[in-house]
Amino acid sequence: MTGRTRRVEGTKIVQRRAVPAVLAAALLLTAGCSSDSSGGADPSGADGGASAPARTGAPSSAAGSPTEQAPPAKGSVKVLRTVATGLKSPWGIAPLPGGDLLISSRDEATVTRVDAKTGEKTELGGVPGVSPSGEGGLLGIALSPDYASDHMVYAYFTSASDNRVVRMLYDEKKPPGEQLGAPDTVFRGIPKGVIHNGGRIAFGPDKMLYAGTGESGDTGLSQDKKSLGGKILRLTPDGEPAPGNPFPDSPVYSYGHRNVQGLAWDDKQRLFASEFGQDTWDELNAIKPGDNYGWPEAEGKGGGSGFQDPVAQWRTDDASPSGIAWAEGSVWMAGLRGERLWRIPLKGTEASADPQAFLEGEYGRLRSVAPAGGDKLWLVTSNTDGRGDAKGDDDRVLELEVR
Fold first, then answer.
1. 26 contacts 188 by C-beta, under 8 angstroms
2. What is the pLDDT of residues 321-346, one digit of tens each?
3. Number of continuous H segments (helices) and E segments (strands) in the chain
4. pTM score
5. Are residues 211 and 165 in contact, defined by beta-carbon separation less than 8 angstroms?
6. Helix, strand, coil shares, percent, the chain, to 5
7. DSSP secondary structure code for residue 258 in this structure
8. Which H/E stretch holds residue 149?
9. Please, which residues bridge with residue 102 across strands?
10. How far is CA 251 from CA 27, 234, 397, in A?
């Protein structure tokens, strides 16, 4: 790979020869271990396949029936209000059952509750063991599928040695700053790097935990099905390979990815993922279990036999996609370098019209988007991450009405 460049959340740096990485089998799974402590925060971050076994137990990724109706080719976005301001390096977002939001801070390694009505911010506490550096830190967060009874918050973060998934008890009865319990590591061993740490986690309709990972700058990991880098993983809530995964005793759900930072399901339980390209094409992919999405052999459409083409693609200046959400028949995709919100109208797992851009340049870099019910979305900006042009009230959470 010498002589090529690699892009880090909208920036290019010289590509050095990748260092081969071999992950021991013991790193594939570790359940029930406490998180290591570490420090040294550095907020200056940048930001085909063999046939698969039976695909039972996972959400469907079929193309959809001919009777499915496509949404209108042209949509609309209305900013209803600014919900909250003054957030520092926000990354993950998890809507609570009552409507409030949990927001993770990549560089400060804290989780903050935002009152969705008043915008009041309450820091739940810090997450020990996070080692922020470059694009790594405290990244995605998600609520347990049994949150109503167990009050568990899951988080994906970069430690001193790897990327991992932990869960923490959220106890609202304790004083602010002390409401997060000690992290219990449910999965570890995901390769870390200054760049391409992935980081988005979400529980699917099947109540399994999905995690988007990056290849940490070592492109060879993406095609290595024994590596956890450059993959979408599918796990039980306890961190075991989920039943019905395409590769026996493996958490790997799909492979050939470069850096996955967005996961969302449509109303037919079909999974979509956003992915950073290198110098040419960013992607939105429809994910099928066991399939190969091409990196580093293919980037964008037309990669050839054995690789899945993306649903849609963008020049890297126009996107650098992070979070995605599904609403009103479309996938909505937040763009970092592109500083815009993309609408991709769908019929089944195919784009039914050209993607449409909104809010271009109005709020700077956009990091995360999440459903807010019906035709509403939450949108989180990302201008205090060391790469944006932060204004006095950045970063912020917006409420949108979309169609």
1. no
2. 999 999 999 999 999 999 999 999 99
3. 1, 28
4. 0.87
5. yes
6. 5, 40, 60
7. S
8. helix 147-150
9. 94, 113
10. 12, 5, 33
